Here is the input.
Amino acid sequence: MDREEHDSLGAIVVPHDRYWGAQTARALVNFPSGGDTFPPPLVHALGRIKRVAAITNATLGVLPEPLAGLIARAAAEVADGELDDHVVVPVWQSGSGTQLNMNVNEVIAGRANELAGRGRGGREPVHPNDHVNRSQSSNDVIPTALHVAAALEVRDWLLPALDSLEDALGERAAAFGDVVKTGRTHLMDALPVSLGRELDAWAQLVAIGRRRVAGAMDELLVVPLGGTAVGTGVGAPPDFARRAVANLAADTGLALRDAANPLVHQAAHPAPLALSGALRDLAGNLRKIADDVRLLASGPRCGLGELVLPANEPGSSAMPGKVNPTQAESLVMICKQVMACDLACGLAAAAGHLELNTCRPLLACNLLHSIRLLAEGAGSFATRCVAGLEVDRARITATLERSLMLATVLVPRLGYDRTAELVRTAQDSGVSLREAVVADGALSGEEFDQLMRQAWPRTGPVA
Here is the structure.
């Protein structure tokens, strides 16, 4: 049996088993969905905020202790993900995120009233606006929730995944430190390189991306909670911002700070945008690594075939025995998606007009989606691809011996033009460069070998 809920516009029917109230019900009717709902980390961050707000309001004497206790219990269930099924408003709603804030307020009030023995939902004894939303506005709560959710996702998921990938690449770099292979520029043969150093370069690209992401974290730790509707704090007790943010910092383990001017983070979103940029840069680095792995593992007989990928699953429904670079392909797609999300984040962050940004849901969903995608993608690539990489040493040796770009080493001795003639001779006759040089009489075999030894790339651990 459905029940009737009320708000300032009147009555509306709500399913009997749902905690939400009238404003959530109206949002489900009034806004397009597309199947898009908010990421759980954002909802959980809102639960944390509502809990510490209730505790802070009680401490400051603006919310009765019994009601604060009920709100805190219900909000903790939201923070723990126990009520995810009840936060259902579409992403495509008010640009401030008001419907999301009210959905959470109503769910907490509805659950708190049930805990008080009054039945599920309703507005007594706990009211979604008067009590759950006390000292707050959607305009300070939603950006605070975004900062907190993003910081927690980066700390708990993305940074550990990047550490794992960097470690896996470093381990493989050490394992292959003695392997010298043909280098390639413009996808064409170039001077030899150490495979260990090639992998170490990949590891350092991951480290660079990690540092940029970690560097963007500090700005996220400044939150506008307590700024209320237009950043002035009207409607909240004078000490609410400082105390609430301190309580939120203790609850999350994040070094959160209340904003000196909350309007900075309510009218614009510089901190999430900076993080999005760092994620885009990281995606660019990871895509380069994944593409390199695909190229070096191509074949195995008719491509480069220098790296051997772990066989995680059959590669083809039609071609037996085929193994595809699926982990690399997955990561490449993730990186392209993150780059697209960064564009959406940039457009959203630019939608600040006067005292309010009106594309917060767009920004929040794309930013949090990027963080989790990169965390899962990097972690999977580390464990299911990099950790199992092997080398076809015989193939590497064979291609290296046939490389004509060893000729670069001869230029100081023979000159560019003379060396180019010898390269063309070797290419046209299908012999090795050494054979062409010795046959021409330009150098003896011993002289050729000595020059090559002097120019051979360093191998072993990278200093």
